[in-house]
Write a structure and sequence with these properties.
The structure is a single chain. By secondary structure, this protein is α/β, with parallel strands linked by helices. The two termini are 24 Å apart. 32% of the residues lie in helices and 33% in strands.
Length: 235
């Protein structure tokens, strides 16, 4: 299920956008849970309590607290880094202010269904509507985690370090076995010891990749073509 939040102080707009998202849900047979907020405080309290959303439509001109401030707060919280933000405004002059917040897209008022549909289709292409789970054994128990929450895997001798949005886990295994089990198209081998989730790449050069948690992952010469291919596929 996709969790979508709408935060805008215009109740007429909120109703219109909610109807468009619901229409997309019905037309594509995708279960979408929609929650609407009319101020930043209610949104942030809900995120604090329930852990956030997959996709947030966020008004930039949002009463006393601007959407830009809310977006910066979200990006400063490591546990909700994967939340995608679509900024909403009647103006198109905010591009530079929004750069550091890494918005997924921008929705200009007045809106129409085709534009909302495009954004939801783009989310589905980039992040998958249906979660895939990675299973591993730790402490004699089988665990599983949504692949979207994994930042990268690192091979450490006979163990695998799995870095996630919520912390780190270790388990016994080989990186080649992990790579075979991963069902998503979003993972890329960039080094004999590193398997990264392309969803959480925020920067790269020929020698390294910067992940969403700030970690720098080395890219070996032999794996550069793998990375280039994945960047094109997921761009």
């Amino acid at each position: 299920m996709l969790k979508v939040a709408i935060c805008d102080d215009d109740d007429v707009f909120c109703s219109e956008l909610e109807n468009y998202v619901s229409r997309f849900s019905l037309e594509n047979n995708i279960k979408i849970d929609i929650q609407t907020f009319y101020n930043a405080q209610d949104l942030l309290e809900d995120i604090d309590t329930d852990g956030g959303f997959d996709l947030l439509f966020l008004d930039i001109e949002l009463g006393n607290e601007t959407g830009v401030e809310v977006g910066k707060w979200i990006r400063s919280n490591e546990k909700i880094q994967a939340m995608q933000i679509v900024f909403v405004s009647a103006k198109e002059s905010y591009a530079m202010q929004l750069f550091d917040i890494r918005p997924m897209n921008f929705l200009v008022k007045p809106i129409n269904y085709e534009r909302v549909k495009y954004i939801l289709d783009e989310y589905g292409r980039l992040f998958d509507f249906q979660p895939c789970f990675f299973e591993y054994i730790s402490g004699r128990r089988k665990h599983r985690i949504d692949e979207r929450h994994i930042v990268f895997f690192q091979s450490q001798a006979k163990q695998i370090l799995m870095v996630t949005l919520d912390g780190e886990q270790q388990f016994y295994g080989k990186l080649s076995e992990v790579y075979e089990q991963i069902s998503s198209d979003f993972f890329c081998l960039v080094h004999k010891s590193y398997l990264i989730n392309m969803r959480h790449v925020i920067g790269y050069n020929s020698d390294s990749v910067t992940m969403i948690n700030g970690d720098s992952v080395p890219v070996s010469r032999s794996m550069r073509s793998n990375l280039s291919k994945k960047i094109i596929e997921n761009g």
